[in-house]
User: Fold this.
Amino acid sequence: MHILVVSQFFAPEMGAPAARFGDLGRQFVAAGHRVTVLTTFPNFPQGKVYAGHRQAIAARQTVDGIEVLRTPILAMGGHSPLRKAALYASFAGSAIVQGGLRGLRPDVVVGTTPPPTVAYASLALARRYGVPHVVDIRDIWPEAVVNAGRVQAGPAVRALEALNAVVLRSSAAVTTVSEGKRQRLLELGARPGTVHVVPNGADLAQFDAWAAAHRDAARTLLAGLGLDLDRPIALYAGVFNPPQGLDGLLDVAARRKARGSDLLQFAIIGDGALRDHLQARIAAEGLHQVKIGGPVDRTLIPALYALATCTVVILRPRKDTHTVPSKIYEAMAAGRPVVLSADGEVQTIARTAGCGPIGDAGDLAALDSQLDQLLGDPAAAEAMGRAGRDYARQHNDRATLAVRYLDLLRRAVDGCG
Assistant:
């Protein structure tokens, strides 16, 4: 098959959006399929094109056997709703033009969201080429951003919801990352029998190779931040945006400082809208045990996880209960215990995996206690790390998930949905 993936995010960008079809696409290619990713120039999460990259009408490259076609975007920086809307709309428009003019001739088109505007472009291209459309929904927008208070409900939101319903009804298959999201998509109008869960995960073979290859670089990075590699390190790696609840992590660091518990260090690696805010808090409150670094290439992340005493997966309290941060799978893949501070379906996954202590979102006393629990019982922490790795191997290895996804795509092409 020739699989056309429309994705606003792709390597070298950080985070789950770029990783999902980077990993799956590499597996599709290894299975003998042709994969083209229609994306834009790297700019996530700051909305500014990365240094060393220059926008052009079009650019082609090959990444891990994947044909990558880059198309322009209105990247102005900033995080206001209007600037974000312009960013998302400009990619959808340029993707439709580029994808339609390039004579790509795919057998199936996959649009991976959010933002939902990507799916409007991918559906248009599927119709342009007369092939099945598959929509991949990692988070349900605009519902999620309205519930988070980032935008207000109104005519624009209702228009997006109406367009989303068209996409759901028009797609041969809908894939999503958790069972709760599958149920919600059916409530929002997806046709029964078309919605399938293909969770996020980690390419374990690639993950292990990167961990071994970049261990020295990871040690250099952490030491360069001022971290003592002979003392325990709790690591957060990901996006610095409001839903992640990183202020809560600083609050825990402040609690520990106040009682003179300074053994544990915190490494916060990544980038995002809250970077300046977090750095200002660290300086103002004298949280010297907290260090911020990055952004870093995702090939370095496995080695950073491997050097950590534990990883932290944290979310603010939220209305939906079906969000599962993809970083939990990479944390488990590293064989390190996971300290979870989040609600809903991710708790069920962590409890089933036995990968570490679990607390509710916003319960900072529990998070603080969980960290002490791990420090006080290294043998139990090691056992939790092994359990998480075993769970990731059984349920979330991208090599296995890619086989499932390819089966869905074949059925879509064969007309079975």
Summary: The radius of gyration is 21 Å. The chain is about 45% helix and 15% strand. The longest helix spans residues 81-101. The mean pLDDT is 94.
